[in-house]
Amino acid sequence: MATEDNDPFDSATSEYLTMDDLATGGPGHKTDAPVGRLLIIWAQGMRTDLPGTNGTYDAVEARYVVLDGDTTEKIDTIPCVVTDGLFSAGQFVSKLKHRVGGKPLLGRVDSRPSTRNKKVLAYGFADPTETDKKLAREYLANLDPFA
């Protein structure tokens, strides 16, 4: 979509959701909350040997739905459907790579100090509660299979 100055291009930065966006804003959100948003993730494919600052890494391409939390600049509605996600954090890859093309994963994004680098957070999944599972089932029951 063109902007007011007739520039036909979208920005290549800051439009995507980061782990920081997903690890915060969940129920009882606090800045240092270890448990974040509830996601249903459909793993679509694997990408291997991606170039990184410390060598190569693997990532899982996925579609996912953010089911709860506050709206933000990047998450403007709940539920929020993301059709082109990429998960590269170690626990995400290990949990999702075996689900490519299969059943979705339901989990709540969590964060904790990294065991390798104390200056950054490690991200992963917390097990969903029964309330989380109920919310996910309600979302799935209301999907239009022909949409």
Report the β-strand fraction as a percent range: 35-45%
Overall average residue pLDDT: 81
Strand ordering within the main sheet = 3-2-1-4-5
Helix content class: 10-25%
> What count of structural domains?
1
Judged by helices, strands and strand pairing, the structural class is alpha+beta
What's the main sheet like?
Answer: 5 strands, antiparallel
The count of β-strands is 5
From the N-terminal CA to the C-terminal CA, the straight-line distance is 23 Å
Structural description of this entry:
The protein has one domain (26-141). Mean pLDDT is 81; it is low at 25-34. It is α+β, with helices and mostly antiparallel strands. The longest helix is centred in the last third of the chain and has 12 residues, at 130-141. It starts with 18 loop residues before the first helix and ends in a 6-residue tail after the last helix. The chain contains three helices and five strands; from the N terminus they run αβββαββα. Strands 3-2-1-4-5 form a five-stranded antiparallel β-sheet.
Task: Give a quick precis of the structure.
This protein is of the alpha+beta class and 147 residues long. The chain is built from 3 helices and 5 strands; from the N terminus they run αβββαββα.
Write the layout of secondary structure elements.
Elements: H1 19-23, E1 35-52, E2 55-66, E3 80-87, H2 90-96, E4 105-113, E5 121-126, H3 130-141
Antiparallel strand pairs: 1-2, 1-4, 2-3, 4-5
